[in-house]
C-alpha cells in the first residue's frame, strides 16, 4: 500500500514524461497541415518560436531543409545575448546553408567565425551594417568559405568601418577563385540609387556583382558607387567611358525618386530633407502649408486634412495645427 502511494506521488521519469506529452498532443490534435507549408517562408525569429509550440512543429522545423537554406538575421535582433544565442542555435542546424544575411551591429568577428566554422559551404555572405565587424574579420570569414574550392560567390560589406583598398583587393582575390574579372563585368547591371533602396538585400546577386562596395573615384573611400540613369550621363558613359557622376551618394547628390545626379541649379528639398531633382519635385503633391513634397520613402509624413483637399506634412501639423480638430491623421 505504501509503495503504491509513493509511486503515485513520485516524479515522472524522462521516458514517462515524453510519453505523457505525446498522449496530450494526440488528444489535442496534430497541427493543421498548412502550418508545415509556411515554415520555409517564416522570418528567423518566428521560425524558432514555431519550433517551441509542439513536438510536431519542432520536428518539422529541425528536419525540413528549406527553412535553413537562406538565413536572414534582421536588425530587430539587436540584443547581444539574444543574437549570439540565436546565431549559435541556427548555425548548429543549418548544415546546408547557402546564404547568410546578418544586419546587426552586435555581431563580432569571433561570432561570425563561429557561424562560418559550422557552415563552411555557404556561397553568399551578406553582412551590411554590421559595424561590430572589422575588415580583417570579414577577410578571415571569406578565406574560410573559399577553401577546398568552395568558392564564395557574393559578398555584402557596406557599412563596415575602415574598409580600405587593400582589403577590397584581398576580398576580390578570394571571390574570383572560380571566375575571371571579365566574366563578372559582363554580368553586371547598372546600380541605380533609387532602385537599390527598394531592393531586398538577399537578392543582391541579380545585380551581377560579387561585392557591393568599391573605391569611390572622388573620395577614394570604400562605399557603394551608383550609376546614373540621366540620359546625357548614360550616353557619355557608353560612348566615351566618362564617369563624371559615377560616385558614392556622399560625393554627389542623387534624387530619391529617380536616382539621377542632381546639379546645384536643379536641387530641391522635400519635407523629409531628402534630395529631389526639379522634375520629380514638380510631379509630387505638396503640403498645403509649406508647399514641399514628400518622397515616396517618407509618405508616412503626410497627414490628410478632413476640411480641405490635399494633405499637411507632419512638421507643419506639429508647428501650426497641434490640438486642432480640423486635421485628422
TrEMBL record:
Biased amino acid composition, Basic and acidic residues: 1-17
Designated name of the protein: LOW QUALITY PROTEIN: F-box protein SKIP28
Disordered, as annotated region: 1-25
InterPro entries on file: 4Fe4S_Fe_S_CS, F-box-like_dom_sf, F-box_dom, LRR_dom_sf
SUPFAM superfamilies in UniProt: F-box domain
Domain F-box: 31-66
Gene name per UniProt: LOC110423378
Amino acid at each position: 500500500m505504501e509503495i503504491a502511494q509513493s509511486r503515485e506521488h513520485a516524479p515522472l521519469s524522462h521516458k514517462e514524461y515524453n510519453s505523457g506529452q505525446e498522449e496530450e498532443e494526440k488528444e489535442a490534435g496534430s497541427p493543421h497541415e498548412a502550418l508545415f507549408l509556411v515554415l520555409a517562408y517564416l522570418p528567423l525569429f518566428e521560425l524558432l518560436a514555431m519550433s517551441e509550440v509542439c513536438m510536431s512543429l519542432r520536428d518539422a522545423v529541425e528536419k525540413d531543409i528549406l527553412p535553413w537554406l537562406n538565413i536572414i538575421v534582421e536588425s530587430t535582433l539587436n540584443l547581444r545575448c539574444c543574437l549570439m544565442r540565436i546565431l549559435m542555435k541556427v548555425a548548429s542546424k543549418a548544415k546546408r546553408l547557402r546564404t547568410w544575411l546578418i544586419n546587426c551591429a552586435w555581431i563580432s568577428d569571433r561570432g561570425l567565425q563561429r557561424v562560418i566554422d559550422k557552415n563552411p559551404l555557404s556561397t553568399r555572405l551578406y553582412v551590411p551594417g554590421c559595424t561590430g565587424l572589422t575588415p580583417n574579420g570579414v577577410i578571415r570569414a571569406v578565406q574560410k568559405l573559399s577553401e577546398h574550392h568552395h568558392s564564395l560567390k557574393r559578398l555584402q560589406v557596406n557599412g563596415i568601418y575602415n574598409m580600405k583598398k587593400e582589403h577590397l583587393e584581398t576580398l576580390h582575390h578570394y571571390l574570383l577563385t572560380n571566375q575571371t574579372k571579365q566574366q563578372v563585368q559582363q554580368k553586371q547591371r547598372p546600380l541605380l540609387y533609387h532602385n537599390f533602396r527598394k531592393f531586398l538585400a538577399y537578392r543582391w546577386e541579380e545585380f551581377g556583382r560579387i561585392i557591393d562596395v568599391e573605391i569611390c573615384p572622388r573620395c577614394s573611400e570604400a562605399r557603394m558607387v551608383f550609376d546614373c540613369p540621366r540620359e546625357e550621363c548614360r550616353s557619355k558613359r557608353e560612348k566615351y567611358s566618362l564617369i563624371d557622376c559615377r560616385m558614392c551618394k556622399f560625393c554627389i547628390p542623387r534624387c530619391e525618386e529617380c536616382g539621377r545626379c542632381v546639379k546645384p541649379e536643379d536641387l530641391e528639398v522635400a519635407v523629409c530633407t531628402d534630395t529631389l531633382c526639379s522634375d520629380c519635385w514638380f510631379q509630387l503633391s505638396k503640403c498645403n502649408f509649406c508647399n514641399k513634397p514628400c518622397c515616396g520613402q517618407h509618405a508616412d509624413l503626410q497627414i490628410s486634412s478632413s476640411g480641405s483637399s490635399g494633405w499637411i506634412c507632419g512638421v507643419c501639423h506639429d508647428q501650426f495645427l497641434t490640438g486642432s480638430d480640423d486635421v485628422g491623421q
